[in-house]
């Protein structure tokens, strides 16, 4: 009786790429819940729109490429892209924009390059950047912190472009703190004066700093679960902290504090959830530190001297390009070779 | 004693408790014994018996052709019981490529009569070279699984540390564990003999992974009043790899291009050491070894002292073979290989047989794309970049794969073990290595053909010239004559 033969090893660790993707999704949940608490139901609607779009776009391309649908759809990677993009979008963006961004992320950024594992750019952040460049006005419209739109208002804003219970969308929305600070600095206000603005919370924007704090908890859980390693988040936040401290100490009148930089905008979401995307990041520990540090520094440069209020999307994309080169130059010393 | 760490490695579920609780038992004498002519790394042997010959246990039936085995990288093969040679023919042998090879088949007579044995009562009175030759003639090879002829690693060349490898890091295998528990004195004496053979090493370390406390205890007890150090090393696969163990014990790295001897270290396995003890003090050549027979495919997993040449089927039957064996693996769960059939003989390198029951060895879930998570690089004990190697091997860019040190890979399987996308990484590397070796052989052949061709052209030209010269001479002769 012949036995089944297969190559060694015959033992496998109980790890699974789909499980890793699922854990990333779980880690996003608390942040999204707090998001709803402060900004209303828009984000949930965006998550749903993005998820459906991501899965159907992925299915479409797989069908066109004559690939089996099931393994790719069930690996969870499309959902991760969808959720991350939705988490980065304002709850006020119209439905088609979420769809467009997600479809672009999945079809162009991910599948046209060969699908999971082959894409040089992080799909979620590339989709976000595409929207940011194409529709800056809509992308910059965020809920004012004074009142949260209800479920019906959120639905109406996303699908009709205006709320139900209040006359205009403008009554509900306002600029983000990053925007406000940038514009006020242009008008020669000092940081100390800007800090009197009602948007300011403890360290950064009210509510946003809390949302980011909860995203941080999700990221720490991923670290604890060893889904991600500490190198990239620490390097992103560490380098941003150092460079902002340097300028803050230099002139605290025109350069905001390092803590403000860390808790504002998308740095935490970016550092823990997006920059750590293994497909598009550097792989060695040393390489990850360089990669993360590059992102932190670019965020600061774009925020401080660039045209956009936040820089995380472009910082990640720019460092995505460098990942293969970083990998090439940070190869470890092989066992038995001279030091 | 200070210990070092190598990069990576994985903590594995050892599955050792299956077979580690019962003492080593004697395997039954089978009706037929099968001896493949190549059971080690190096030169194959040639049969020196004929069909119909009567042989005794311990008698050499095959050795190196035209030379003394002790001068070659080779080891003679001994009959493991008395009987009659009934065939010298092609038989399937245990090999990852499921090869057939020439085997000597002996029908046993049930008497198990030894040939005259040549014991050395006091090895210290002999020169290291003489002891070494004795070990070579006993047919001893590395019994940890590699099968490198032991005498080659016993040349006295400024060796200051002898390491006896009792790490046994592979899952499922417990033969060394049991042997260390049951025969610590033999191992200790064997180590002293090896030291003498190496010209007297300054240090001798017996290394045992800390998941084998009883073995450690037993060895420590017998080594108390000697200069042999028994050292506990942390349990981490693949600590039992020769070069990994050297790193752990000495902090020194022996690369692919070097031999451990070049830094003054020699490593021998514990069972090899016991075989040396038996060969020297009892004159007993290598005719049997301890084999772990384990897995859920047998009722009584245990360690058996098996006569070499015994068909695996007999050993499985003795351990209570179940009807639903799924896979039969020779070696451990990480580096062993699956055998298609059970009528293959146990050879010198058979340290373990895993007969897996249904669902015991996890069938890898469907393949997913590599997400470059780098888990493979984190566990690679050689500090390679397995995922880069994978891309290049998959793309058949073998030059690039070699630039990424493909040939430093030791096939340990850590990368494939941790891969969350279940990519059979090691298979890709084996494939690439085989392809590269084959193309190098082709290249060499083509080069030789080219040389032959060029030489032929040269010779034809030369002969033409010579002929012309002769004609000229003759013409001159005719002229002058």
Describe this structure in words.
The complex is a heterodimer of chains A (339) and B (481). Chain A is mainly alpha-helical and 339 residues long. Chain A has a domain at 18-174. Chain A is 62% helix and 1% strand. Chain A has helices at 17-39, 42-64, 69-74, 77-88, 95-110, 123-134, 136-139, 151-160, 177-186, 191-194, 208-224, 231-250, 258-263, 267-274, 285-305, 312-329; strands at residues 142-143, 173-174. A two-stranded antiparallel sheet of chain A has the order 1-2. Chain A is globular, with a radius of gyration of 21 Å. With 481 residues, chain B is α/β, with parallel strands linked by helices. Among the domains of chain B are: 17-28 and 118-290, NADH-ubiquinone oxidoreductase 51kDa subunit (Rossmann fold); 365-481, Fumarate Reductase Iron-sulfur Protein, Chain B, domain 2, CATH 1.10.1060. Chain B is built from 13 helices and 17 strands. Chain B has helices spanning 17-20, 128-137, 175-182, 184-197, 213-223, 242-250, 270-281, 312-318, 375-379, 386-394, 398-403, 414-418, 425-480, and strands spanning 25-26, 32-36, 46-47, 54-55, 60-63, 77-78, 83-92, 100-108, 161-166, 203-209, 228-233, 265-269, 288-294, 302-307, 327-330, 337-339, 352-356. The radius of gyration of chain B is 26 Å and the shape is globular. The mean pLDDT of chain B is 93. At the A-B interface, helix 1 of A face strand 15, strand 16, helix 12 and helix 13 of B.
């Amino acid at each position: 009786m012949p036995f089944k033969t297969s190559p060694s090893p015959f033992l496998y660790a109980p790890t699974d790429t789909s499980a890793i993707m699922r854990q990333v999704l779980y880690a996003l949940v608390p942040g999204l819940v707090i998001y709803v608490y402060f900004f209303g139901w828009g984000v949930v609607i965006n998550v749903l729109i993005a998820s459906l779009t991501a899965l159907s776009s992925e299915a479409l391309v797989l069908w066109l490429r004559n690939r089996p649908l099931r393994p790719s759809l069930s690996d969870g990677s499309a959902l991760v892209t969808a959720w991350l993009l939705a988490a980065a979008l304002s709850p006020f963006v119209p439905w088609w924009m979420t769809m467009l961004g997600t479809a672009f992320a999945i079809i162009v950024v991910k599948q046209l390059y060969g699908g999971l594992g082959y894409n040089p750019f992080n799909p979620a952040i590339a989709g976000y950047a595409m929207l940011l460049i194409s529709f800056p006005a809509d992308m910059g419209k965020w809920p004012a912190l004074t009142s949260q739109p209800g479920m019906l208002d959120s639905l109406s804003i996303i699908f009709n472009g205006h709320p139900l219970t209040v006359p205009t969308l403008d009554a509900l929305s306002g600029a983000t703190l990053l925007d406000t600070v940038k514009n006020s600095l242009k008008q020669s206000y000092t940081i100390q004066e800007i800090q009197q603005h009602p948007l300011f919370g403890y360290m950064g924007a009210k509510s946003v700093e809390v949302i980011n704090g909860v995203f941080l908890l999700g990221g720490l859980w991923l670290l604890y679960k060893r889904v991600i390693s500490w190198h990239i988040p620490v390097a992103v936040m560490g380098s941003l902290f150092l460079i902002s401290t340097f300028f803050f100490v230099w002139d605290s009148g025109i350069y905001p504090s390092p803590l403000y930089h860390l808790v504002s905008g998308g740095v935490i979401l970016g550092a823990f959830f997006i920059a750590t995307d293994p497909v598009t990041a550097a792989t060695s520990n040393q390489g990850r530190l360089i990669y993360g540090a590059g992102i932190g520094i670019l965020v600061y440069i774009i925020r401080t001297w660039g045209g956009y209020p936040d820089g995380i999307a472009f910082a990640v994309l720019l460092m995505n390009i460098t990942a293969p080169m970083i990998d090439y130059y940070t190869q470890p010393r092989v066992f038995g070779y001279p030091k | 004693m200070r210990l070092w760490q190598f990069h990576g490695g994985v903590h594995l579920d050892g599955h050792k408790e299956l077979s580690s609780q019962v003492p080593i038992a004697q395997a039954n004498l089978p009706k037929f014994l099968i001896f493949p002519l190549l059971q080690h790394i190096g030169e194959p042997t040639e049969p020196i018996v004929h069909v119909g010959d009567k042989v005794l246990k311990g008698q050499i039936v095959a050795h190196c052709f035209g030379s003394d085995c002790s001068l070659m990288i080779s080891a003679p093969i001994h009959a493991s019981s008395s009987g009659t040679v009934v065939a010298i023919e092609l038989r399937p042998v245990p090999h990852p490529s499921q090869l057939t090879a020439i085997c000597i088949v002996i029908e046993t007579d049930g008497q198990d009569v030894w040939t005259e044995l040549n014991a050395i009562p006091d090895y210290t009175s002999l020169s290291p070279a003489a002891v070494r030759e004795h070990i070579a003639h006993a047919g001893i090879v590395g019994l940890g699984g590699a099968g490198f002829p032991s005498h080659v690693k016993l040349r006295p060349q400024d060796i200051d540390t002898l390491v006896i490898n009792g790490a046994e890091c592979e899952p499922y295998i417990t033969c060394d564990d049991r042997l260390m528990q049951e025969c610590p004195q033999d191992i200790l004496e064997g180590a002293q003999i090896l030291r003498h053979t190496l010209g007297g090493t300054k240090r001798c370390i017996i290394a045992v992974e800390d998941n084998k406390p009883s073995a450690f205890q037993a060895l420590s007890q017998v080594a108390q009043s000697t200069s042999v150090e028994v050292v506990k090393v942390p349990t981490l696969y693949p600590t039992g790899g020769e070069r990994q163990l050297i790193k752990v014990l000495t902090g020194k790295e022996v690369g692919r291009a070097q031999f451990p001897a070049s830094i003054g270290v020699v490593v021998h396995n514990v069972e090899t050491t016991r075989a040396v003890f038996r060969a020297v003090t009892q004159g007993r050549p290598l005719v049997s070894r301890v084999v772990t027979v384990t897995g859920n495919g047998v009722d009584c997993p245990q360690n058996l002292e098996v006569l070499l040449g015994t068909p695996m089927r007999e050993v499985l039957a003795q351990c209570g073979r179940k009807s639903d064996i799924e896979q039969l693996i020779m070696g451990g769960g990480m580096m062993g290989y699956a055998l298609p059939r059970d009528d293959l003989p146990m050879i010198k390198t058979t340290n373990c047989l895993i007969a897996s029951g249904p669902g015991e060895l996890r069938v890898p879930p469907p393949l997913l794309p590599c997400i470059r998570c780098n888990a493979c690089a984190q566990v690679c004990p050689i500090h390679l970049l397995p995922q880069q190697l994978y891309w290049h091997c998959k793309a058949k860019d073998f030059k690039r794969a070699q630039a990424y040190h493909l040939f430093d890979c030791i096939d340990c399987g850590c990368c494939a073990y941790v891969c969350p996308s279940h990519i059979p990484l090691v298979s890709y590397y084996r494939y690439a290595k085989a392809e590269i070796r084959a193309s190098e052989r082709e290249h060499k052949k083509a080069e030789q053909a080219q040389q032959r061709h060029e030489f032929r052209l040269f010779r034809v030209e030369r002969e033409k010239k010579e002929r012309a010269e002769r004609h000229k001479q003759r013409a001159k002769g005719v002229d002058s004559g």
